[in-house]
Amino acid sequence: MDDAPGGILRWNLFIGGHLSSSVPVRLVERTRVGRLLWLETGTPMWRTELPGGAHLRDIPPQDRPAHGYPAKADRWPMGSALIHQPFGAGHAVFWFFGRRQRFRGWYVNLERRVHHGEDIDVVDHELDITVAPDRTWRWKDERSFTEKTGHPAYWSAEEAAAIRTEGERVAALAESGAFPFDGTWCDFRPSRHWMTPPRSAPPSRTVL
Q: What is the largest CA-CA distance in the chain?
């Protein structure tokens, strides 16, 4: 895989083994500790088409089609984000930006990642953390995380404890103002030479 800055990769989010979305992102840099990615608001992407406008996390795996849901063309609806994916860690940190590139806060996604070629497959662990600019933080989706614990498509009770411990470790960094919550990259500006990435080819697989 080409690790040159500005290269385009695919960020593929899987929930309970099924694809939720596939979004082109730009590689900002790759260091010995991790990858830094740029996700631009409005980027053409693929999102799985679900019945009745449901969210994939709310559909039990046993009720989903074995081959996964079809993917439809869409655009990234949330704000632009800088994403740090530390190697060997069970989380990623998002710096979200609003209008005029104003920093809005951090989002900690607890996850497991597999990199292959230009694809970054992210297995979502449901439990997340939001961190405000003043570094106050709170858990997100605790109830849903608890409800999914023990299901074979998600995680065991032992794995759930490890996921929560990972979150607690990152939350402690926010409380202490340590990296990545020390102001690093809060003033990030993407290269003015970067165009919005085009929509990639349809996902080659919708089930892990």
A: 47
